[in-house]
Protein backbone atom coordinates (compact mmCIF):
# COMPACT_ATOMS: atom_id res chain seq x y z
CA UNK A 1 0.00 0.00 0.00
CA UNK A 2 1.21 3.46 -0.91
CA UNK A 3 0.17 5.81 1.88
CA UNK A 4 0.82 9.11 0.11
CA UNK A 5 0.19 12.60 1.41
CA UNK A 6 -2.95 13.07 -0.66
CA UNK A 7 -4.34 9.53 -0.78
CA UNK A 8 -3.63 5.85 -0.14
CA UNK A 9 -3.65 3.21 -2.86
CA UNK A 10 -3.46 -0.57 -2.66
CA UNK A 11 -1.63 -2.39 -5.45
CA UNK A 12 -1.82 -6.12 -6.00
CA UNK A 13 1.14 -7.71 -7.75
CA UNK A 14 1.19 -11.22 -9.11
CA UNK A 15 3.90 -13.52 -10.41
CA UNK A 16 4.26 -17.24 -11.17
CA UNK A 17 5.58 -18.85 -7.99
CA UNK A 18 8.11 -21.17 -9.64
CA UNK A 19 9.82 -18.22 -11.34
CA UNK A 20 10.00 -15.78 -8.49
CA UNK A 21 13.72 -15.14 -8.97
CA UNK A 22 13.23 -14.05 -12.53
CA UNK A 23 12.23 -10.67 -13.84
CA UNK A 24 9.78 -9.35 -16.38
CA UNK A 25 7.12 -11.52 -14.79
CA UNK A 26 5.73 -9.45 -11.95
CA UNK A 27 2.55 -7.68 -12.95
CA UNK A 28 0.15 -5.34 -11.25
CA UNK A 29 -3.21 -7.07 -11.36
CA UNK A 30 -5.31 -4.62 -9.39
CA UNK A 31 -5.33 -1.08 -7.99
CA UNK A 32 -7.75 0.06 -5.31
CA UNK A 33 -7.85 3.76 -4.45
CA UNK A 34 -8.78 4.32 -0.83
CA UNK A 35 -11.70 6.75 -0.44
CA UNK A 36 -10.85 9.95 1.39
CA UNK A 37 -7.56 11.72 2.09
CA UNK A 38 -4.11 10.35 2.95
CA UNK A 39 -3.55 8.76 6.38
CA UNK A 40 -1.63 11.81 7.64
CA UNK A 41 -4.87 13.83 7.41
CA UNK A 42 -6.36 11.70 10.20
CA UNK A 43 -3.97 13.02 12.85
CA UNK A 44 -6.86 14.20 15.00
CA UNK A 45 -8.92 11.01 14.51
CA UNK A 46 -6.37 8.20 13.99
CA UNK A 47 -8.90 5.36 14.21
CA UNK A 48 -10.46 6.66 11.03
CA UNK A 49 -7.13 6.25 9.24
CA UNK A 50 -7.36 2.50 9.88
CA UNK A 51 -11.06 2.33 8.99
CA UNK A 52 -10.45 4.13 5.70
CA UNK A 53 -8.36 1.18 4.46
CA UNK A 54 -11.02 -1.47 5.08
CA UNK A 55 -12.89 -1.39 1.77
CA UNK A 56 -9.72 -1.81 -0.28
CA UNK A 57 -8.58 -4.63 2.00
CA UNK A 58 -11.92 -6.40 1.47
CA UNK A 59 -11.37 -5.98 -2.26
CA UNK A 60 -7.90 -7.50 -1.91
CA UNK A 61 -9.45 -10.56 -0.25
CA UNK A 62 -11.54 -11.05 -3.37
CA UNK A 63 -8.61 -10.59 -5.76
CA UNK A 64 -6.12 -12.86 -4.03
CA UNK A 65 -7.19 -16.53 -4.16
CA UNK A 66 -8.32 -17.70 -0.70
CA UNK A 67 -5.72 -20.45 -0.43
CA UNK A 68 -2.96 -17.87 -1.02
CA UNK A 69 -4.10 -15.28 1.55
CA UNK A 70 -1.69 -16.41 4.27
CA UNK A 71 1.26 -16.55 1.87
CA UNK A 72 0.65 -13.08 0.48
CA UNK A 73 2.94 -10.49 2.06
CA UNK A 74 1.35 -7.11 2.74
CA UNK A 75 3.44 -3.95 3.09
CA UNK A 76 2.46 -0.36 3.74
CA UNK A 77 4.91 2.45 3.02
CA UNK A 78 4.08 6.02 3.95
CA UNK A 79 5.71 8.99 2.24
CA UNK A 80 5.93 12.75 2.66
CA UNK A 81 2.57 13.37 4.37
CA UNK A 82 3.60 11.14 7.28
CA UNK A 83 7.16 12.52 7.21
CA UNK A 84 5.71 15.98 7.77
CA UNK A 85 3.26 14.80 10.44
CA UNK A 86 6.08 12.98 12.19
CA UNK A 87 8.12 16.20 12.19
CA UNK A 88 5.22 18.32 13.45
CA UNK A 89 3.76 15.86 15.97
CA UNK A 90 5.46 12.50 16.35
CA UNK A 91 2.95 11.11 18.86
CA UNK A 92 0.11 11.84 16.42
CA UNK A 93 2.02 10.02 13.69
CA UNK A 94 2.61 7.02 16.02
CA UNK A 95 -1.12 6.86 16.73
CA UNK A 96 -1.96 6.89 13.05
CA UNK A 97 0.43 3.95 12.51
CA UNK A 98 -1.04 2.05 15.47
CA UNK A 99 -4.53 2.45 14.02
CA UNK A 100 -3.39 1.44 10.54
CA UNK A 101 -1.52 -1.58 11.91
CA UNK A 102 -4.55 -2.67 13.95
CA UNK A 103 -6.78 -2.46 10.90
CA UNK A 104 -4.40 -4.31 8.56
CA UNK A 105 -3.68 -7.14 11.00
CA UNK A 106 -7.37 -8.07 11.02
CA UNK A 107 -7.00 -9.35 7.47
CA UNK A 108 -5.71 -12.83 6.62
CA UNK A 109 -2.61 -11.68 4.71
CA UNK A 110 0.98 -12.01 5.89
CA UNK A 111 1.31 -8.50 7.32
CA UNK A 112 4.89 -7.23 7.08
CA UNK A 113 4.58 -3.82 8.70
CA UNK A 114 3.70 -0.20 8.05
CA UNK A 115 6.44 2.43 8.07
CA UNK A 116 7.59 5.75 6.74
CA UNK A 117 9.98 5.15 3.87
CA UNK A 118 12.92 7.51 3.40
CA UNK A 119 13.07 10.00 0.54
CA UNK A 120 16.08 8.10 -0.87
CA UNK A 121 14.12 4.84 -0.91
CA UNK A 122 11.15 6.56 -2.50
CA UNK A 123 13.36 7.90 -5.31
CA UNK A 124 15.42 4.75 -5.77
CA UNK A 125 12.44 2.35 -5.81
CA UNK A 126 10.62 4.57 -8.32
CA UNK A 127 13.70 4.28 -10.55
CA UNK A 128 13.80 0.48 -10.08
CA UNK A 129 10.10 0.20 -10.98
CA UNK A 130 10.49 2.13 -14.22
CA UNK A 131 13.59 0.27 -15.34
CA UNK A 132 12.31 -3.14 -14.24
CA UNK A 133 9.07 -2.71 -16.19
CA UNK A 134 11.02 -1.51 -19.23
CA UNK A 135 13.21 -4.65 -18.88
CA UNK A 136 16.26 -2.37 -18.97
CA UNK A 137 17.78 -3.89 -15.82
CA UNK A 138 17.64 -7.50 -16.93
CA UNK A 139 19.02 -6.68 -20.35
CA UNK A 140 21.71 -4.34 -18.98
CA UNK A 141 20.49 -1.48 -21.22
CA UNK A 142 20.92 2.25 -20.62
CA UNK A 143 18.54 3.16 -17.80
CA UNK A 144 15.82 5.77 -17.65
CA UNK A 145 15.77 8.45 -14.94
CA UNK A 146 12.66 8.70 -12.76
CA UNK A 147 10.82 11.91 -11.90
CA UNK A 148 8.02 11.60 -9.34
CA UNK A 149 5.85 14.55 -8.30
CA UNK A 150 3.68 13.88 -5.27
CA UNK A 151 1.54 16.18 -3.16
CA UNK A 152 4.16 16.83 -0.46
CA UNK A 153 7.51 15.83 -1.96
CA UNK A 154 9.18 15.25 -5.30
CA UNK A 155 11.96 12.87 -6.34
CA UNK A 156 14.58 12.89 -9.08
CA UNK A 157 16.72 9.78 -9.68
CA UNK A 158 19.08 8.96 -12.54
CA UNK A 159 22.39 7.40 -13.47
CA UNK A 160 25.03 9.83 -14.72
CA UNK A 161 28.44 8.71 -16.03
CA UNK A 162 30.31 11.59 -14.40
CA UNK A 163 28.88 10.85 -10.97
CA UNK A 164 30.66 8.58 -8.51
CA UNK A 165 28.67 9.34 -5.38
CA UNK A 166 31.59 10.56 -3.28
CA UNK A 167 30.60 14.26 -3.42
CA UNK A 168 27.37 13.68 -1.53
CA UNK A 169 26.92 10.16 -0.14
CA UNK A 170 23.35 10.90 0.98
CA UNK A 171 22.41 11.33 -2.68
CA UNK A 172 23.78 8.02 -3.87
CA UNK A 173 22.45 4.53 -3.84
CA UNK A 174 24.38 1.64 -5.28
CA UNK A 175 22.87 -1.58 -6.53
CA UNK A 176 24.05 -4.77 -8.13
CA UNK A 177 21.20 -6.10 -10.23
CA UNK A 178 21.38 -8.98 -12.72
CA UNK A 179 25.16 -8.78 -12.66
CA UNK A 180 25.38 -5.03 -13.35
CA UNK A 181 26.50 -2.32 -10.92
CA UNK A 182 24.50 0.89 -10.77
CA UNK A 183 25.51 4.07 -9.01
CA UNK A 184 22.27 6.00 -8.77
CA UNK A 185 21.92 9.68 -7.97
CA UNK A 186 18.67 10.37 -6.11
CA UNK A 187 17.16 13.25 -4.20
CA UNK A 188 13.79 13.80 -2.56
CA UNK A 189 12.74 17.41 -1.96
CA UNK A 190 10.42 17.49 1.02
CA UNK A 191 7.80 20.27 0.67
CA UNK A 192 8.27 20.42 -3.12
CA UNK A 193 5.28 18.23 -4.00
CA UNK A 194 2.61 20.21 -5.75
CA UNK A 195 0.34 20.83 -2.73
CA UNK A 196 3.10 21.96 -0.40
CA UNK A 197 4.81 24.08 -3.05
CA UNK A 198 1.49 25.86 -3.65
CA UNK A 199 1.34 26.60 0.08
CA UNK A 200 4.93 27.87 0.01
CA UNK A 201 4.17 30.13 -2.93
CA UNK A 202 0.98 31.46 -1.33
CA UNK A 203 2.80 31.96 1.96
CA UNK A 204 5.37 34.01 0.04
CA UNK A 205 2.62 36.07 -1.61
CA UNK A 206 0.83 36.73 1.66
CA UNK A 207 3.76 37.31 3.96
CA UNK A 208 2.37 40.63 5.19
CA UNK A 209 -0.96 38.96 6.01
CA UNK A 210 -3.21 40.99 3.70
CA UNK A 211 -7.00 40.48 3.52
CA UNK A 212 -6.76 40.05 -0.25
CA UNK A 213 -4.19 37.98 -2.18
CA UNK A 214 -3.98 38.54 -5.96
CA UNK A 215 -2.69 35.29 -7.41
CA UNK A 216 -1.25 35.13 -10.97
CA UNK A 217 -1.41 31.29 -10.90
CA UNK A 218 -5.22 31.17 -10.66
CA UNK A 219 -7.63 32.05 -13.46
CA UNK A 220 -9.11 35.55 -13.82
CA UNK A 221 -12.59 35.52 -12.26
CA UNK A 222 -11.56 32.95 -9.58
CA UNK A 223 -12.30 34.10 -6.02
CA UNK A 224 -12.41 32.12 -2.80
CA UNK A 225 -12.23 32.88 0.90
CA UNK A 226 -9.38 31.00 2.55
CA UNK A 227 -8.20 30.55 6.08
CA UNK A 228 -4.75 31.70 7.14
CA UNK A 229 -4.50 29.00 9.80
CA UNK A 230 -5.26 26.30 7.22
CA UNK A 231 -2.69 27.72 4.78
CA UNK A 232 0.04 27.77 7.42
CA UNK A 233 -0.80 24.41 8.99
CA UNK A 234 2.29 22.59 7.66
CA UNK A 235 5.96 22.45 8.68
CA UNK A 236 6.76 23.62 5.13
CA UNK A 237 5.41 27.11 5.90
CA UNK A 238 4.57 27.26 9.61
CA UNK A 239 7.61 29.40 10.48
CA UNK A 240 6.46 32.11 8.07
CA UNK A 241 2.99 32.70 9.50
CA UNK A 242 2.30 36.46 9.60
CA UNK A 243 1.71 37.71 13.14
CA UNK A 244 -1.14 40.14 12.72
CA UNK A 245 -3.00 38.46 9.89
CA UNK A 246 -6.80 38.34 9.88
CA UNK A 247 -8.43 34.88 10.10
CA UNK A 248 -9.26 34.74 6.43
CA UNK A 249 -8.14 36.23 3.16
CA UNK A 250 -9.78 36.55 -0.21
CA UNK A 251 -7.89 34.63 -2.85
CA UNK A 252 -8.34 36.28 -6.24
CA UNK A 253 -7.00 34.89 -9.53
CA UNK A 254 -5.46 37.14 -12.18
CA UNK A 255 -4.20 34.43 -14.60
CA UNK A 256 -0.82 35.76 -15.65
CA UNK A 257 1.63 33.00 -16.61
CA UNK A 258 4.80 35.13 -16.53
CA UNK A 259 4.01 36.55 -13.11
CA UNK A 260 3.05 33.06 -11.97
CA UNK A 261 6.41 31.74 -13.14
CA UNK A 262 8.17 34.47 -11.14
CA UNK A 263 6.07 33.66 -8.05
CA UNK A 264 6.79 29.94 -8.40
CA UNK A 265 10.52 30.69 -8.72
CA UNK A 266 10.39 32.36 -5.32
CA UNK A 267 10.08 28.93 -3.64
CA UNK A 268 13.48 27.83 -4.97
CA UNK A 269 16.74 29.00 -3.47
CA UNK A 270 19.60 29.32 -5.95
CA UNK A 271 22.03 31.33 -3.85
CA UNK A 272 24.57 28.79 -2.62
CA UNK A 273 26.08 25.55 -3.83
CA UNK A 274 29.04 23.82 -2.20
CA UNK A 275 29.21 21.07 -4.81
CA UNK A 276 30.40 21.02 -8.40
CA UNK A 277 26.83 21.75 -9.50
CA UNK A 278 23.45 22.01 -7.82
CA UNK A 279 19.79 21.88 -8.66
CA UNK A 280 18.37 24.20 -5.97
CA UNK A 281 18.48 24.71 -2.19
CA UNK A 282 22.19 23.82 -2.28
CA UNK A 283 21.49 20.22 -3.32
CA UNK A 284 24.01 18.41 -5.51
CA UNK A 285 22.83 17.35 -8.92
CA UNK A 286 25.12 15.77 -11.49
CA UNK A 287 24.73 16.52 -15.21
CA UNK A 288 21.43 15.27 -16.55
CA UNK A 289 21.83 12.20 -18.72
CA UNK A 290 19.64 9.90 -20.78
CA UNK A 291 15.89 9.56 -21.08
CA UNK A 292 13.49 10.24 -18.18
CA UNK A 293 10.06 8.97 -17.19
CA UNK A 294 7.94 11.54 -15.30
CA UNK A 295 4.95 10.12 -13.45
CA UNK A 296 2.27 10.75 -10.78
CA UNK A 297 1.32 14.46 -10.75
CA UNK A 298 3.67 15.17 -13.68
CA UNK A 299 1.40 12.94 -15.70
CA UNK A 300 -1.98 13.94 -14.18
CA UNK A 301 -1.32 17.62 -14.81
CA UNK A 302 0.37 17.49 -18.22
CA UNK A 303 -2.22 14.99 -19.44
CA UNK A 304 -5.07 17.27 -18.39
CA UNK A 305 -3.38 20.23 -20.11
CA UNK A 306 -2.79 18.16 -23.30
CA UNK A 307 0.93 18.81 -22.94
CA UNK A 308 2.34 15.30 -22.69
CA UNK A 309 3.95 15.52 -26.16
CA UNK A 310 7.50 16.62 -25.36
CA UNK A 311 8.46 16.81 -29.04
CA UNK A 312 6.51 20.10 -29.03
CA UNK A 313 9.08 22.90 -28.50
CA UNK A 314 9.24 24.14 -24.92
CA UNK A 315 8.45 27.70 -26.03
CA UNK A 316 5.18 26.50 -27.61
CA UNK A 317 4.33 24.56 -24.45
CA UNK A 318 4.77 27.75 -22.41
CA UNK A 319 2.69 29.73 -24.90
CA UNK A 320 -0.17 27.21 -24.59
CA UNK A 321 0.00 27.30 -20.82
CA UNK A 322 0.04 31.10 -20.90
CA UNK A 323 -3.22 31.09 -22.87
CA UNK A 324 -4.73 28.48 -20.57
CA UNK A 325 -3.88 30.47 -17.42
CA UNK A 326 -5.40 33.64 -18.93
CA UNK A 327 -8.71 31.87 -19.64
CA UNK A 328 -11.59 33.01 -17.48
CA UNK A 329 -12.49 30.71 -14.57
CA UNK A 330 -16.18 30.52 -15.65
CA UNK A 331 -15.16 29.30 -19.07
CA UNK A 332 -12.78 26.72 -17.57
CA UNK A 333 -15.55 25.36 -15.33
CA UNK A 334 -17.98 25.22 -18.26
CA UNK A 335 -15.48 23.31 -20.38
CA UNK A 336 -14.71 20.72 -17.66
CA UNK A 337 -17.86 20.06 -15.65
CA UNK A 338 -16.60 16.55 -14.79
CA UNK A 339 -13.32 17.60 -13.14
CA UNK A 340 -12.98 18.08 -9.38
CA UNK A 341 -13.02 21.85 -8.72
CA UNK A 342 -9.93 21.72 -6.50
CA UNK A 343 -7.89 20.10 -9.28
CA UNK A 344 -9.41 22.37 -11.92
CA UNK A 345 -8.56 25.55 -10.03
CA UNK A 346 -4.95 24.44 -9.65
CA UNK A 347 -3.92 23.19 -13.12
CA UNK A 348 -2.53 26.60 -14.16
CA UNK A 349 -0.37 26.69 -11.03
CA UNK A 350 0.58 23.00 -11.32
CA UNK A 351 1.57 23.25 -15.00
CA UNK A 352 3.66 26.35 -14.28
CA UNK A 353 5.23 24.65 -11.27
CA UNK A 354 6.15 21.56 -13.33
CA UNK A 355 7.80 23.58 -16.11
CA UNK A 356 9.65 25.75 -13.58
CA UNK A 357 10.81 22.79 -11.50
CA UNK A 358 12.07 20.97 -14.59
CA UNK A 359 13.83 23.91 -16.26
CA UNK A 360 14.93 26.22 -13.45
CA UNK A 361 15.14 23.58 -10.71
CA UNK A 362 16.60 20.54 -12.48
CA UNK A 363 18.16 22.40 -15.43
CA UNK A 364 16.33 20.72 -18.31
CA UNK A 365 16.83 22.87 -21.43
CA UNK A 366 14.78 23.38 -24.60
CA UNK A 367 16.83 20.50 -26.07
CA UNK A 368 16.78 18.06 -23.16
CA UNK A 369 13.06 18.67 -22.45
CA UNK A 370 12.27 16.15 -25.20
CA UNK A 371 14.19 13.47 -23.22
CA UNK A 372 11.29 13.46 -20.76
CA UNK A 373 8.33 11.18 -21.30
CA UNK A 374 5.22 11.80 -19.19
CA UNK A 375 3.98 8.35 -18.24
CA UNK A 376 1.30 6.76 -16.11
CA UNK A 377 1.71 3.06 -16.72
CA UNK A 378 4.32 0.79 -18.25
CA UNK A 379 2.99 -2.51 -19.63
CA UNK A 380 -0.13 -2.30 -17.47
CA UNK A 381 1.62 -1.51 -14.16
CA UNK A 382 1.59 1.98 -12.62
CA UNK A 383 4.87 3.87 -12.48
CA UNK A 384 5.64 4.62 -8.81
CA UNK A 385 7.83 3.41 -5.96
CA UNK A 386 5.63 0.52 -4.75
CA UNK A 387 6.66 -2.13 -7.26
CA UNK A 388 10.40 -1.48 -6.69
CA UNK A 389 9.81 -1.52 -2.92
CA UNK A 390 8.13 -4.90 -2.97
CA UNK A 391 10.61 -6.39 -5.48
CA UNK A 392 13.33 -5.44 -3.02
CA UNK A 393 11.58 -6.72 0.11
CA UNK A 394 10.71 -10.04 -1.49
CA UNK A 395 14.25 -10.44 -2.94
CA UNK A 396 12.81 -10.72 -6.39
CA UNK A 397 15.68 -9.09 -8.27
CA UNK A 398 18.86 -11.19 -8.12
CA UNK A 399 22.24 -9.46 -7.79
CA UNK A 400 23.74 -11.78 -10.40
CA UNK A 401 22.37 -12.55 -13.81
CA UNK A 402 20.46 -15.86 -13.74
CA UNK A 403 22.21 -18.59 -15.77
CA UNK A 404 20.98 -18.04 -19.26
CA UNK A 405 19.55 -21.25 -20.66
CA UNK A 406 21.05 -22.38 -23.97
CA UNK A 407 17.57 -22.61 -25.34
CA UNK A 408 14.45 -20.64 -24.49
CA UNK A 409 11.67 -22.54 -22.69
CA UNK A 410 9.70 -23.57 -25.84
CA UNK A 411 13.00 -24.84 -27.31
CA UNK A 412 13.49 -27.16 -24.34
CA UNK A 413 9.93 -28.45 -24.63
CA UNK A 414 10.44 -29.34 -28.32
CA UNK A 415 13.81 -31.05 -27.73
CA UNK A 416 12.48 -33.09 -24.81
CA UNK A 417 9.40 -34.11 -26.84
CA UNK A 418 11.50 -35.26 -29.80
CA UNK A 419 13.82 -37.26 -27.52
CA UNK A 420 10.80 -38.86 -25.82
CA UNK A 421 9.32 -39.91 -29.17
CA UNK A 422 12.70 -41.35 -30.32
CA UNK A 423 13.11 -43.29 -27.06
CA UNK A 424 9.63 -44.68 -27.45
CA UNK A 425 10.35 -45.84 -31.02
CA UNK A 426 13.66 -47.36 -29.88
CA UNK A 427 11.83 -49.17 -27.09
CA UNK A 428 9.28 -50.61 -29.50
CA UNK A 429 12.04 -51.67 -31.91
CA UNK A 430 14.04 -53.31 -29.10
CA UNK A 431 11.04 -55.50 -28.32
CA UNK A 432 11.10 -56.87 -31.89
CA UNK A 433 12.82 -60.24 -31.13
CA UNK A 434 9.94 -61.02 -28.78
CA UNK A 435 7.26 -60.36 -31.37
CA UNK A 436 5.33 -63.61 -32.37
CA UNK A 437 6.54 -64.76 -35.73
CA UNK A 438 3.85 -65.00 -38.28
CA UNK A 439 4.60 -66.80 -41.43
CA UNK A 440 2.96 -66.08 -44.70
CA UNK A 441 4.03 -69.51 -46.10
CA UNK A 442 1.19 -71.98 -46.61
CA UNK A 443 1.22 -74.57 -43.98
CA UNK A 444 1.86 -78.11 -45.10
CA UNK A 445 -0.50 -80.45 -43.50
O1 LIG B 1 4.09 11.28 -2.74
P1 LIG B 1 3.43 12.17 -1.74
O2 LIG B 1 4.04 13.53 -1.71
O3 LIG B 1 3.30 11.56 -0.39
O4 LIG B 1 1.94 12.42 -2.28
P2 LIG B 1 0.92 11.43 -3.01
O5 LIG B 1 1.54 10.12 -3.29
O6 LIG B 1 -0.34 11.42 -2.26
O7 LIG B 1 0.72 12.17 -4.39
P3 LIG B 1 0.10 11.59 -5.77
O8 LIG B 1 1.20 11.26 -6.68
O9 LIG B 1 -0.96 10.59 -5.52
O10 LIG B 1 -0.60 12.90 -6.28
C1 LIG B 1 0.16 14.04 -6.47
C2 LIG B 1 -0.71 15.22 -6.49
O11 LIG B 1 -1.58 15.15 -7.60
C3 LIG B 1 -2.92 15.34 -7.18
N1 LIG B 1 -3.77 14.62 -8.13
C4 LIG B 1 -4.16 13.32 -8.11
N2 LIG B 1 -4.94 13.05 -9.18
C5 LIG B 1 -5.01 14.20 -9.88
C6 LIG B 1 -5.65 14.60 -11.08
O12 LIG B 1 -6.38 13.77 -11.79
N3 LIG B 1 -5.51 15.88 -11.49
C7 LIG B 1 -4.75 16.74 -10.78
N4 LIG B 1 -4.13 16.45 -9.67
C8 LIG B 1 -4.26 15.20 -9.22
C9 LIG B 1 -2.97 14.91 -5.75
O13 LIG B 1 -4.02 15.54 -5.07
C10 LIG B 1 -1.61 15.39 -5.27
O14 LIG B 1 -1.66 16.76 -5.01
CA1 LIG C 1 3.65 9.50 -3.96
TrEMBL record:
Cofactors (names): Ca(2+); Mg(2+)
Amino acids binding ATP: 151-155
Major enzyme class: hydrolase
Keyword line: ATP-binding, Calcium, Disulfide bond, Glycoprotein, Hydrolase, Magnesium, Membrane, Nucleotide-binding, Transmembrane, Transmembrane helix
Transmembrane segments: 411-431
Active site: 122 (proton acceptor)
Reaction catalysed by this enzyme: ITP + H2O = IDP + phosphate + H(+); ATP + 2 H2O = AMP + 2 phosphate + 2 H(+); ADP + H2O = AMP + phosphate + H(+); a ribonucleoside 5'-diphosphate + H2O = a ribonucleoside 5'-phosphate + phosphate + H(+)
EC nos: 3.6.1.5
A Gene Ontology biological process term: nucleoside diphosphate catabolic process
Role according to the record: Catalyzes the hydrolysis of both di- and triphosphate nucleotides (NDPs and NTPs) and hydrolyze NTPs to nucleotide monophosphates (NMPs) in two distinct successive phosphate-releasing steps, with NDPs as intermediates and participates in the regulation of extracellular levels of nucleotides. By hydrolyzing proinflammatory ATP and platelet-activating ADP to AMP, it blocks platelet aggregation and supports blood flow.
PANTHER family linked to this entry: ADENOSINE/GUANOSINE DIPHOSPHATASE, ECTONUCLEOSIDE TRIPHOSPHATE DIPHOSPHOHYDROLASE 1
Assembly, per entry: Homodimer; disulfide-linked.
Protein name (database record): Ectonucleoside triphosphate diphosphohydrolase 1
Lineage: Eukaryota, Metazoa, Chordata, Craniata, Vertebrata
Amino acid sequence: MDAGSSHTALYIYEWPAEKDNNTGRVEQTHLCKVKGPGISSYASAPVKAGESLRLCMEEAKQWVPGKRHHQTPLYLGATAGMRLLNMANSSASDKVFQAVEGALQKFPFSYQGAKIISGQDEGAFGWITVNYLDERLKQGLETRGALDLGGASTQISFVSDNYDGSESPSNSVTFRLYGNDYNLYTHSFLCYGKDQSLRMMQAHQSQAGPATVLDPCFHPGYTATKNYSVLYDSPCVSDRKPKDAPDTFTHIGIGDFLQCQAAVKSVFNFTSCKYSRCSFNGVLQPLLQGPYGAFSAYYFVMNFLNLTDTSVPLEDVKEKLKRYCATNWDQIMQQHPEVKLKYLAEYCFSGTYILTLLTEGYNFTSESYSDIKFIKKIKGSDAGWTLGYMLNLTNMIPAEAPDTPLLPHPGYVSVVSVIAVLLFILFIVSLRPLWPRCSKQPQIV
